[in-house]
Amino acid sequence: MPALAFASSFWETYDVLDKQVKAGVRKAMAKFQQLSIAQLNADKGLHLETVENARDPRMRTIRVTQFWRGVVLAPDDGSDTFLLLSVVPHDEAYGWAAKRLYTVNTATRALEVRNVVAIEQLTPSLEEASAQVPTRLFARHSDTVLRDLGIDDQVLRAARAITDTAQLDAFGGVLPEDQFEVLQFLAEGFSPEEVYRDVVAVRRPAEVPAEAGTEDSLEMAIRNTTSRITLVTGPDELADILDKPFAAWRVFLHPSQRRVAYRPSYSGPAQVSGGPGTGKTVVALHRVKHLLSRSPDSRILLTTFTNALADMLRENLALLLDHDETRLARVHVTTVDAFANRIVRDSTGRAQNPITDIDERQLWRRISRRLGLPWGDQFLAQEFRHVILAQNITSEQDYLRAARRGRGSALRSAQRRQLWRAVEEFRTDLRSEGKTTHLQICAHAADLLGGAEPGPHHYDHAVVDEAQDLHPVQWRVVRAAVAEGPDDLFITGDPHQRIYDSRVSLRALGVPVVGRSSRLRINYRSTAEILSWSVGVLADTNVEDLGGDGDDTLIGYRSLLRGTRPVVGGYASEQDEITALVEHVQAWLRQGVRADEIAVCTRFNVLLDKVRDRLAAEGIPAVKVKDRPGAHVDGVRLASMHAMKGLEFRCVAVVGVTAGAVPFTRDVTPVEVDSVAHASDLLKERCLLFVACTRARERLVVSWSGESSPFLSSVTGGDR
Ligand SMILES: Nc1ncnc2c1ncn2[C@@H]1O[C@H](COP(=O)(O)OP(=O)(O)OP(=O)(O)O)[C@@H](O)[C@H]1O
């Protein structure tokens, strides 16, 4: 019987088909598993038909319903795997099929598709246009180098005419996938050796001899293309895959994602970084799946930053593990704070009572006044957080000797004594009220875990998502929960999304990742237009890497999706701004976007409440993300910029991006108080805006009233 495989282009169309057409697809596909090739060719219902004038002679159409056709690649080399490429309305099927050509990449050995007609038509005009331009994008690479990286004759001719990256990007949609990625990496300035390692070698099957030709059968090439093609082996698997909503991230990992998620073992902590939307969370989930498969009884701690994200991780892990309760029971999905809370509660028998950040600042204010200190609440709170808790300082002696990394103002011994007094008062006041802070709970939990024999709160592995914002004390909790050894910690994070200013040196915390770090570069979430605009908000700012050992970079970070440019604009008044926002939301809803696929976010809750009231007045339901509405709850999602961390929506409006709100002056240490803290507070606020904007998949609106945020000057050309 023939085998059946599905290309990613099929899934892009299948999910949105109506029920009747989907039923037609299921019926047609079942035949492929029941009939012999001769019977398939003769089957009247299926009507397997050659496409006239197709550039790929293996193109066939099949009948799905009266008005819909499936497009299939049929083997002509004696192998028997059919590849379903797409389901298209009858009238469009032949045009769709005729111009596409599937070939085997000489370097990666994977099956690629190109729009051969478009390349033939575009290349001469490209050559003509670039005749006047003296430089060529790939001039410094010889034909041999390009061919060794899998570039074939047709693509080589086109590549030779390309003068800049904008042209390459515009051409990208019609080029074969692996070859386009090679060209993109070269265009970014990566060396051919790096491109071979990161693009070619990760795809190329290990057993192919270096000098092998490209005479692989279609079946072999399909097997080599795991990042774009799924092979189905039996009827159960077929029914399963066609019945469930398809989530590409579960099946089609990019080779760079697969390599890090399914590497059999790491000798110690491993770290994966990458810009927003590059699939770090996806990789973390696949790593959990891999670790579970390696032992029948290992237990895994999977942490993230907020409760909303923990809910989402739990749901997605269940999907990835096919709701297998036995394996799910071996994974504890939580936030580090909730985990620490549970440890302390289990040990003391008392529920902990952490105060909010606002209450903490008030307490510092009271103590500062009481002791007549020269420092404000912000300075004291930061000293406590970034120096005392970060280094686990418990005595005045230790504080007098401590290095105050990341603090820009020197403190003499007498000043430190004065400050230590405030710290003691802070602790005493809290204790007398039966209260504590989140970080103090973590410190307590880390001590409890560190001193205990392996027990229910110890795990074999920890997988840490959103790692960039963990405070050193939270790292100590994670570190103490897992014994040091191979595969102990798997860490994913993005330093450009650091919004709580917790810079750490992982090495100093017993989490050495040198030699076990990788980077993801392809954004799967946002369109290139949204991405490049949002990266502009960062304005070339230097950002320290996750381990605190150097700077991180977004070189090579890109999206393959195309869409419309963000809509960015200012209004005379807040009221006008909200009116415009409501109009955007109404337009999106009219275009068929569901309310829960839309998010509105602001720096402050006050504005968010005004937005909610206006939406309600227009009859548009809205719910706050922090109330953790389930996926089934209707309504536009409303969130503060902080609560947007890790989430994504088809359409996002970031409103109230004014000079007074972003950055929020009260959260920025005055430069005269501490210049280093001032700079890092500003960076944190800039990253916050970056995080908010990079939540958008298809549409992004950014607005303000009055004077715009200074962070927008790099993307609006200073036009306010
Ligand atoms: N290989 C893949 N194929 C298809 N979709 C993918 C793939 N990898 C990731 N995605 C999708 O891209 C989006 C972003 O993924 P994910 O949330 O894992 O990124 P992230 O790097 O953790 O993002 P952020 O740092 O912004 O929170 C999600 O919708 C995810 O399903």
UniProtKB/TrEMBL annotation:
Protein name as catalogued: DNA 3'-5' helicase
The answer to whether the entry has keyword Zinc-finger is no
Q: Name one Pfam family in it.
A: UvrD_C
- Origin species, per record, is Saccharomonospora cyanea NA-134
> Can you give the residue ranges of the UvrD-like helicase ATP-binding domain?
253-527
Q: Which domain of life is it from?
A: Bacteria
User: One GO CC annotation, please?
Assistant: DNA helicase complex
**Per the UniProt entry, what is one GO biological process?**
recombinational repair
Q: Which UniProt keywords apply?
A: ATP-binding, Helicase, Hydrolase, Isomerase, Nucleotide-binding
- InterPro entries in alphabetical order: DNA_helicase_UvrD-like_C, DNA_helicase_UvrD/REP, P-loop_NTPase, UvrD-like_ATP-bd
